[in-house]
Please model this.
Amino acid sequence: MKKDAKTFKEVAERCTRFSPDECEGCSFSNSTASSEDVSCKHCKHYEPGKVCKLDLYREIVTNHNL
Model:
């Protein structure tokens, strides 16, 4: 499974649970329009070894043929 910068960006843009890590106390939002650096790595659900604590990365990659 690809885990490069381009794929992290594409997944984050499609993720309904994307929440920028600088957004403390925010509810889930796919607020990619307001963030210049959209990436899984900048989401509060990002976990280096697993990528996504919510297990959405693999699902999004598969469903969108990324």
In short: The chain has one domain: 5-63. Residues 5-63 form one domain.
